[in-house]
Amino acid sequence: MFAPAYLDHNATTPVHPAVLEAMLPYFDVRYGNASSRHEYGRAARKAVDEARQRVAAAVGAHPTEVVFTSGGSESNNLFLKGAAACLKPSLVAVSAIEHPCVREPAKALQRSGWQMHEIAVDGEGRVVPADYADVLARKPALVSVMLANNETGVLQDVAALAEQARACRAWFHSDAVQALGKVAVDFRRLNAAGVHGLTLSAHKVGGPKGAGALVLDKRVELKPLISGGGHERGLRSGTENVPAIVGFGVACELAVADLEQKKNNLLALRTQLEQGLGGQGATIFAAAAERLPNTSYFAFDDLDGETLVGKLDRAGFAVASGAACSSANPEPSHVLLSMGVPAGLARGAVRISLGASTTEVQIQNFLATLADTVAQLKRLTAIAV
Questions:
Q1: Cβ(154)–Cβ(286) under 8 Å?
Q2: Which residues lie closer than 8 Å to 117 by C-beta, 6 or more apart?
């Protein structure tokens, strides 16, 4: 019997049963405010501290470097806006394929006297060395390059990029939201290379929505986005979301357990998927680049991605036409356009992102359904012409 298949794990993941189990008491019997001095508060504070240790351990950081936030968007904004507020207006450089929650804060800084440069990428979605060297020669104060792209899955050599940025004394940030739990993320190694801030999010790794972290080199001075009671070392005021933070900690611990085996399993499934896609004539974006093992981004000539996604959804397959955070935008993916993909082909983009629950049978069923759906749409297109 056919069962629906969820193939959009880069958008969000189901909460792991162990995560849910760990969270439940903090909605009920352990409901204390972590800032309260009594027993209920102390229990909540202990839970937050333990979660901080788990998040830190998952990425090779020290617990004091972990600042809890509401998610990836807030963490990215906190670093860029918070650092900029402590610096004289200068140049901020971000890669052309960043998530909107990096690009938009960078654009907003322009209204405060900053200049902004979008670092070019090549046809595979990798930072262009010559353009990066040119912008470093202009001595940017802030640089942000994501570790893994949410649409294509392309991995950047962030350590090498940060090492190059050290000469101009730039604060270097990387959005690692999509990388955690899919590839090894080591803040200590990255920090030694020159990375000062790393963004994480719980709901991408089997945790709850509404929890994230900025892993921060304590030498970086940030002005908080939210002022108040001085929570999170004064960087993020507000009563801690204890259940979500507890869940985040457990999710991080689970995400990095047996990581190599998980990577190999996902890569085998992606290989099966992309062999089938290639056989159907799809263009696979960034196929030659090093990518996340779970991500495949493709298109068919003359087919609209939104239409294809809608039909696949009705057939029982949850996939994406781009980034979930930008789904209201009808324009072609800025990531693909930055890679030089023609707008017509970019409008046809469909993203498949696999997860722990994905099976070979689901991939087989998806490919069969995709072939039928593409054939149907092409017939309709031919009739319309």
A1: yes
A2: 91, 92, 93, 94, 135, 138, 140
| DSSP state string for 65-120 | GEEEESSHHHHHHHHHHHHHTTS-S-EEEEETT--HHHHHHHHHHGGGT-EEEEEP
Q: Give the confidence band of 385 by pLDDT, cuts at 50, 70, 90.
A: very low
- Which of 226, 256, 286 is the last residue in one of the domains? 256
Nearest to 360 by CA among 296, 266, 269: 269
pTM for the full predicted model: 0.95
Q: Could you give the residue numbers annotated as active site? A: 325
Q: 161-197: per-residue pLDDT in tens?
A: 999 999 999 999 999 999 999 999 999 999 999 999 9
pLDDT of residue 383: 64
User: Looking up tokens 């981004």, which residue turns up?
Assistant: 297
80 plus 223 within the same structural domain: yes
CA distances from 274 to 153, 154, 285, 334 (A): 14, 15, 11, 23
Cβ atoms of 92 and 114 closer than 8 Å: yes
Element counts in the chain: helices (H) and strands (E): 13, 12
β-strands 350-353, 295-299: how paired? antiparallel
Q: Which sign, positive or negative, has the C-alpha torsion 163, 165, 168, 171?
A: negative
Residue 105 belongs to domain with CATH number: 3.40.640.10
SS3 270: helix
Neighbour order of strands in the sheet with 350-353: 283-284, 295-299, 350-353
Give 212's strand partners.
69, 201
Phi, psi of 171 (to 5 degrees): -80, 125
Q: Domain ends where: 256, 288, 314?
A: 256
Which residue do the tokens 């849910």 mark?
20
Enter the tokens of residue 285: 């974006």
Euclidean distance between CA atoms 275 and 359, whole angstroms: 16
More confident residue, 317 or 327: 317
Residue 140 and residue 232 share a domain: yes
**353-372 confidence digits (pLDDT tens):** 999 999 999 999 999 999 99
